[in-house]
Amino acid sequence: MNETLAPPENIVETRYWHTLEDGRVQCDLCPRECRLHEGQRGLCFVRACQDGKVVLTTYGRSSGFCVDPIEKKPLNHFLPGTAVLSFGTAGCNLACKFCQNWDMSKAREMDILADQASPEKIARVAVELGCRSVAYTYNDPVIFHEYAIDVAKACRERGIRSVAVTAGYISPEPRKEFFAYMDAANVDLKAFTEEFYHKLTGGYLQPVLDTLEYIRHETDVWLEITTLLIPDHNDSDEELERLTRWVVEHLGPDVPVHFTAFHPDWKMRDVPPTPPATLSRARRIAMENGIRYAYTGNVHDEEGGSTWCHQCGEKLIGRDWYNLTAWNLDEKGHCRHCGTPCAGVFEVRPGDWGAKRLPVSLRDWP
Length: 366
Fold this sequence. Notes:
Layout: E1 12-13, E2 17-19, E3 25-27, E4 35-36, E5 47-50, E6 53-56, E7 61-62, E8 64-69, E9 83-88, H1 102-105, E10 115-116, H2 119-128, E11 133-136, H3 145-157, E12 161-166, H4 172-179, E13 184-188, H5 194-201, H6 206-218, E14 222-229, H7 237-250, E15 257-261, H8 276-288, E16 294-297, H9 302-305, E17 307-308, E18 315-320, E19 323-327, E20 358-360
Parallel strand pairs: 9-11, 11-12, 12-13, 13-14, 14-15, 15-16
Antiparallel strand pairs: 1-6, 2-3, 3-4, 5-6, 7-10, 8-9, 8-20, 17-18, 18-19
């Protein structure tokens, strides 16, 4: 007898899979290529084999909605100061031992998915709340590929942008479809060694690098990168040198890079928090290697959180945590002091959402 995976309205057939000679089905969404017998789930937990097909079992279900500042994603060069409606589902296609959102991404119980909403309802609520974008976050949107794309389509019809917060662990064909509907992405480049990816995430580095190059060179999606620096695991000068040089060589100097602080969590509670000095050192290395926009995150550091003109050194966008404290871009997104363009997606005036965080229950909306 087949396992009851989810209510029928939350199950949709997926496209990226094929049948193997032994009767199993292989999910082709990501490099894991999970091979499933009837009733089995993939490592992500939300894609499963039902009736000889791979289905998504969490369509239309969310672990919660919240209006955040766009800078929290983090995106510093995409509609600064604006509000973004954020949501996620459950599960993940990586197995990071240091996961900072493990209560959702590692969830194996569907009862955390308390909110249910159609793509059209999410887009409408985003408009009514004054959000300029919707973010697929908390867990990786790659694994709810079909739901995220449908939400993005509905948002696009209402002039709402879509933001993917992702580890970039996705195969080429579904990657092409997914990013065709995204307007911005923050990709988590977790480290710059295969050993780190293999031991601490259960994945591989190269597919992530492929995704970064694809987004940068084959799409119009605005791209930023985040690396969570974990003491004694991915924070050496040598690794940071190689990572930042690769970014400049393969992606260009205008892709912002965020170095964020680790805090003990999930299966790495014995590792100490990242010292602020480590983040500042990483930022310095990045800038010395030619990255024009390098940031520190998860710490209070106005200098490391602000945007500076790479030409004249003047402050372009001041930030105190998620609050904007200065705005020195002209109507074209150029430095008011020297006229040098600042890379990004800007409007004449920044938003004024500030650091507010507003939890939202879509069950309260008609």
